[in-house]
Amino acid sequence: MLFPHHRHDHRLPTEEEALKGRPEPAFPLAGRHAVLGNPLAGPYPEGLAVADFGLGCFWGAERRFWQTPGVWTTLAGYQGGRTPNPTYEEVCSGLTGHAEAVRVVFDPALVSYESLLKLFWESHDPTQGFRQGNDRGTQYRSAIYTHSPEQQSAAESSRDAYRSVLRGSGYGDITTEIRPAGPFFPAEEHHQQYLEKNPAGYCGIGGTGVSCPVGIAPASGS
C-alpha cells in the first residue's frame, strides 16, 4: 500500500491526521545483533540501561552507537509518534509522527549516558528542525527520548551546554526534542544493522565539527 507524501512535513500530524496503525507488529524482529551478537529485544540483562536517540537516518546513526565500547546492543526503530506498530513506508509518509530512532542498550559501568549524549550531539546537526542534511521530513528530526528523571536532566543540561558552544560557532538554536520515552517500535529486519549488511549503503550522518562539552554546567543565560 502506498501513502501520499505528507504535505505538511514542516509539522507533525494531529491525532486526527495520524495513521491508525495496528495492534501487533506487521513484521517479525531479528533475533540477534548482526555485529555484537546479543539479542535485539528485551528483557535485557540486569545492570544494563536503555537510551533512545533520533539524529537523522537511522542506518548511519545506529552504526555510530554499536561501534562504541560498552554498548551491548542497538536497534533501529520508530519513536515519538502517534501510530502504533508503523511500517517504514508509513513513517516516511509523515503521517505517523515518528522519528527514525536508535535504541542503545549499554553498560553504565563501561560507558556513561553523558558520553552517549556527547556522541549524539557530535554526530549530527541538531539545529536543522525537520531535516538532517538532504534528508527532509519530520522523521529526520533530532530527538532524545529519556528513560528516567536523571536522563532527562542530563539531556537538558547537555543541550544547554552545547547550545552555547554552537552559538559561538555561528549556528542557530538547537531544535532537538527532549522528552520521556513512549513506545519504541523496532524497524523492519533489513533496517537493523543496515550498514553492516550493506557496507556501501547510504549514510547521511554528519556532525557540525563542533565539540560537545561533557560534565559541565549549562552556560549562564542559555
UniProtKB/TrEMBL annotation:
Q: Which reaction does it catalyse?
A: [thioredoxin]-disulfide + L-methionine + H2O = L-methionine (S)-S-oxide + [thioredoxin]-dithiol; L-methionyl-[protein] + [thioredoxin]-disulfide + H2O = L-methionyl-(S)-S-oxide-[protein] + [thioredoxin]-dithiol
EC class of this enzyme? Answer: oxidoreductase
Q: Which residues are responsible for catalysis?
A: 57
What's in the keyword line of the UniProt record? Oxidoreductase
Q: Where is the Peptide methionine sulphoxide reductase MsrA domain?
A: 52-203
Signal peptide annotation: none
- What is the top-level taxon of the source organism? Bacteria
Question: Does this entry carry the keyword Transmembrane helix?
Answer: no
* EC number(s) from the headed UniProt entry: 1.8.4.11
Pfam families attached here?
A: PMSR (PF01625)
PANTHER family with a match to the protein in the record:
MITOCHONDRIAL PEPTIDE METHIONINE SULFOXIDE REDUCTASE
Q: Which family does it belong to?
A: Belongs to the MsrA Met sulfoxide reductase family.
Functional summary from the UniProt entry: Has an important function as a repair enzyme for proteins that have been inactivated by oxidation. Catalyzes the reversible oxidation-reduction of methionine sulfoxide in proteins to methionine.
The protein depicted here goes by the name: Peptide methionine sulfoxide reductase MsrA
Instruction: Give the organism, scientific name.
Output: Streptomyces thioluteus
Which gene codes for it?
A: msrA
